[in-house]
Amino acid sequence: QVQLVESGGGLVQAGDSLRLSCVASRRTFSSWAMGWFRQAPGKEREFVAAIGWNGFSTDYGDSVKGRFTISRDNAKNTVYLQMNSLKPEDTAVYYCAASPSGVARSNYQYHYWGQGTQVTVSS
Question: Is the CB of residue 97 less than 8 Å from the CB of residue 110?
């Protein structure tokens, strides 16, 4: 099985920045698209960002465009989410996911998921 492990979450103030990391357990990570999703209490899981296998194709949810940046380092089997200008509305558990079939916004196309990392943004 593929293991994805997120890290980098924490408690920050509005306007601050965080960088989340997700490390995959397999060397074949380099052939997968990777995505970030988030889920706040009482809300549906929301697409945040995705990146293609070579890093050239990216996509972002409307609520984070211009503030978040997804990137990857295939040599380290790691994908990152740089989050700037954080808002209280960004508070959620953030999940890393892997898609063997390319960049997508639907969670159904991601076959592997991490356990999540909590991001809390105070006013």
Answer: yes
